[in-house]
Amino acid sequence: MRRHHLTIRIAVPLAAVLALSACSTPEVAETPRDSVSTAAPSVAAGDAGALLAAHGLVGKSGAEVVEALDQLDAQRPLPLAASVRYDEVLLSDGTIEASMPLDGDEFYLSIAPYETTTHECYFHNLGTCRGELAEADVKVTITTDSGEVLVDEDATTYANGFVGFWIPKDVAGTVVVIKDGKRAESRFSSDAEGPTCLTTLQLL
């Protein structure tokens, strides 16, 4: 497991807070996070420690926070929203926002295979996103366009219906999921503009 130093940026942009309240779309990436909305006052830096402590995040790296929240066996939405991006995870409790880096050369891709019901998603929100198939046994293969197999394993979706994988940054390829003889396939991209949330895998 990679280890990263925690850095925190505090701001309370109302648009960003609202964007974190659900699985977000590509437009959210363009929302400025470093400007303060007139609808909410700025928050002292000391409050960030309280935010992290309240959710058991003190001492954890960004990658550890991503894994812990995605795999948390609890009903969504969680009290803490967390939007996974290319190189950071944005945390918000609705009042303050903290940014934790996702350093290194790995990209977090969380997938939610489904049979009948799905939702639009671009940046995976660990605190709000819910897939149809919770705790389901699946076979996942992730292959790059050059033919490199990044993932080839049996997995079980988490309580939120997703299952996540760390893959190399800046590659593209195909995700294949198999469950009970049904198969789903979708493209992925792990570059700076790539989605961290894949909800287009319908099992047929």
Automatic annotation (TrEMBL):
Residues 1-29 form the signal peptide. Keywords: Signal. The keyword Signal applies. InterPro entries: CueP-like. NCBIfam families: CueP_fam. This is CueP family metal-binding protein. It comes from Tessaracoccus lapidicaptus.
